[in-house]
């Protein structure tokens, strides 16, 4: 703008501290774009003042020993990028945390050891074993059971504010085969403080060669929508979306100190085996 017919003041002429305040109100993706505008924007967009705002307020608690700074010496940007590159175990070892690169929202992975697994059929229902593709020391392999329900819980206060999340069961099938996991009577739910906010019909192992099973699967609906199918991940595991919790629902639970609980259940009582559970993930959507 011009004052009294004098020279115009451009945005790039503002003090670096002013630019830092403005850029910190955007997103990590926007900050990277703004760094290409001009040298003054680049200096502000890569500053610790900006990237410190993008880091979760509790990042020091979830980083055991911290992460190495970036080669350019921008410590907080290096910590941010380090948290985006790969999951980091929290200090107490209860889960792994990483950041969605574009938004900075936190993602969580609960290992099978932190899930609630059914033991009604005795201690031999599950076998704990290492897996070459797993991020965790052990996975749970279903040996034999008739009742199968799996629960994972996360404090609602841990979720990034004003962010909607989806929960996923991460799994595989045992090399020696599986049983009882192709039928359509499988259900997933997500609840906040005991209030169910999502319910879906799912099937971990759809058998498209079985015509009768396919008809049942297409007809079986819980609430709304068809049966959900799993998807193969780049890391070799399979995942199925359990359900979603909206930002407002998560916020109400966070204020009350409640948990977000995601569950998967096979409704039929018949023999089941061969499921390999790596864990459960909560990711922003």
UniProtKB/TrEMBL annotation:
Domain F-box per the UniProt entry, residue ranges: 8-54
InterPro entries: F-box_dom (IPR001810), PP2-like (IPR025886)
Coiled coil: none
Database matches in CDD domains: F-box_AtSKIP3-like
PROSITE patterns noted in UniProt: FBOX
Cited Pfam families: F-box (PF00646), PP2 (PF14299)
Name of this protein: F-box domain-containing protein
Species, as recorded: Zizania palustris (Northern wild rice)
């Amino acid at each position: 703008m011009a004052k009294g017919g004098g020279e115009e003041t451009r945005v790039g002429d503002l003090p670096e501290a002013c630019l830092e305040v403005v850029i910190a109100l955007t997103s990590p993706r926007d900050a990277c774009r703004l760094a290409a505008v001009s040298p003054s924007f680049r200096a502000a967009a890569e500053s610790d003042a900006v990237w410190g705002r993008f880091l979760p307020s509790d990042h020091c608690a979830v980083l055991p020993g911290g992460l190495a700074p970036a080669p350019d010496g921008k410590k907080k940007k290096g910590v941010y990028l380090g948290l985006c590159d790969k999951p980091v175990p929290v200090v107490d070892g209860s889960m792994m945390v990483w950041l969605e690169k574009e938004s900075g929202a936190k993602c969580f992975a609960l290992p099978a050891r932190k899930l609630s697994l059914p033991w009604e059929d005795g201690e031999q229902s599950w076998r704990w074993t290492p897996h070459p593709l797993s991020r965790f020391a052990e996975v749970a392999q279903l040996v034999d059971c008739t009742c199968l329900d799996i629960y994972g819980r996360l404090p609602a206060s841990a979720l990034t504010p004003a962010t909607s999340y989806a929960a996923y069961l991460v799994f595989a099938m045992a090399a020696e085969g599986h049983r009882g996991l192709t039928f359509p009577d499988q259900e997933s739910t997500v609840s906040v403080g005991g209030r169910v906010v999502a319910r879906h019909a799912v099937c971990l192992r759809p058998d498209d060669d079985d015509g009768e099973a396919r008809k049942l699967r297409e007809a079986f609906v819980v609430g709304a929508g068809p049966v959900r199918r799993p998807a193969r991940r780049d890391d070799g595991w399979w995942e199925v979306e359990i359900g979603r919790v909206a930002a407002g629902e998560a916020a109400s639970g966070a204020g009350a100190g409640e948990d977000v609980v995601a569950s998967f259940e096979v409704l039929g009582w018949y023999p089941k085996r061969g499921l390999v559970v790596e864990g459960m993930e909560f990711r922003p959507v």
